[in-house]
Amino acid sequence: MNRYDPAVALPPLSPEYDPWDPIRSLRRYGRHVLTSVEFTVTNLCNMRCEHCAVGDALTMTEGARVPLADVLRRLDEVEHLETISITGGEPSYRESTVKDYVVPLLKYARERGVRTQINSNVTLDLSRYEMMAPYLDVMHISFNYTGADDFHRVGFVHAGHPVGRETAVKMYERMMDNASALSKGGMFVSAESMINFRTHEHIADIHRLIVEMGCKRHEVHPMYPSAFAAGLPQLSLDQIRGAVTRLLDERDRDLWMLFGTLPFFACGDDPDGLELVRRLRREPNVTVRNDPDGRNRLNVNLFNGDVHVTDFADLPPLGNMERDSFDAIFAKWLDHPLNLRVNCHCDEAACCGPNLLVADAYYRDVDFKSRRATV
Ligand code: SF4
After folding, report:
1. DSSP secondary structure string, 266-325?
2. What region does 159 belong to: left with phi over 0, alpha with psi -120 to 50, or beta?
3. Residue of 265, 289, 356 best suited for mutating to test ligand 1, as the one with most atoms within 8 Å of CB
4. Which residues contact 336 (CB under 8 A, 6 or more apart)?
5. Cβ proximity of 275 and 242 under 8 Å
6. 21, 51, 282, 318: which one has the fewest Cβ atoms less than 10 Å from its Cβ?
């Protein structure tokens, strides 16, 4: 495993240094290697968002997890580990999960010089997030709202029972207060918004609230049909391009903007799409991240040890951590026919191909392996 000298300060995350982007390891090793492991630590959540990409996996109760010692042993084996992500559900839903799994995983990472991210809705008690603060690199929150009514409309669609406006408003305010307090305390809060049928015309207003909360980064992804989002209207490429352009025009230029899973490629044949690719490269403080899913990352379900290519893949598990090392499972994925369909690479465009959901949603008939970047 890679070693870290704790006397050497870890480099700050910045537009120049984003260890989640698989283009870095692809360039460094000349092939895709596993540098990132994501753990699903819970399937419980206090919300049921309309667009939830793991909505089908959410539960009301859950059983025992794989022992932490087994998890750490498997992590020790990952030769090139650079990042760990923790996701759910809402990872802080139970305080015991934070104490028994989240904090120990974060501590392990910090001791090894590995960078960490947790995906949270930050609507619960501030103290749960403060417990993570000393060891956490990125607090990743979802933020798709222009106000409390939006939050109420979107956040409980699949709750199975009505959630009153007053309850929703309290949660919304707690989320805003927590994000502001954590940011003020020095935490790197990265707010993610999705571009979808609800947000695409209001994305600049959403951006302004993220700036107000003091977040260090605004991460933006189009929404793709997965789990709860599968039945929602899909935007056209023109609508997505319009939303990205609006954001670029109206953004706060001091805030790092990270775009991911964009459906615009340097090999495209639409001049407007190519112009947007060029503009994204020119804009200061703006990055476009290649998608880690299936490029440098695997997802591990901590309840049964199953390993998937993403936390929202419809594919059967690629393996199980009880039997196989993470590196061995990743090697198996590299030869998988689905990976071979989209694992193109144009280094001059800093691109290593589309995410599978993107290819399926917008480019079903395109053979990316036969294309090359033209800009
Ligand atoms: S790597 Fe693939 S998707 Fe990216 S520009 Fe090249 S051919 Fe297109």
Report:
1. TT-S-HHHHHHHHHHHHSTTEEEEPP-BTTTEEEEETTT-EEESSTT--SPPSEETTTS-
2. alpha
3. 265
4. 309, 318
5. no
6. 282
Is this structure's pTM higher than 0.85? yes
Contact 51, 194 (CB under 8 A): yes
Here the tokens at position 165 are 């406006």
Report d(CA 195, CA 55) in Å as an integer. Answer: 18
Which residue CA neighbors atom 8 of ligand 1 most closely? 267
Instruction: Identify the pLDDT of residue 61.
Output: 79
Nearest partner of 289 among 75, 52, 26, judged by Cα: 26
Amino acid at 44: L
State if residue 354 touches ligand 1 by the CB under 6 angstroms criterion: yes
Amino acid symbol at 157: V
353 lines ligand 1 (CB under 6 A): yes
Is the CB of 358 inside a 6 Å radius of any atom of ligand 1? no
Q: Are 213 and 183 contacting, i.e. CB atoms less than 8 angstroms apart?
A: yes
Handedness of CA 140, 21, 51, 237 (dihedral sign): positive
> What token pair was written down for 92?
């802080």
Q: Tell me phi and psi for residue 347, to 5 degrees.
A: -65, -35
What pLDDT, on the 0 to 100 scale, is given for residue 162? Answer: 80
**What letter represents residue 51's amino acid?**
H
Q: What is the mean pLDDT of each run of 10 residues along the chain (375 residues)?
A: 74 97 97 97 80 70 91 98 94 92 97 96 94 96 93 76 87 96 97 95 97 98 79 92 98 98 97 98 98 94 92 80 97 93 96 93 95 97
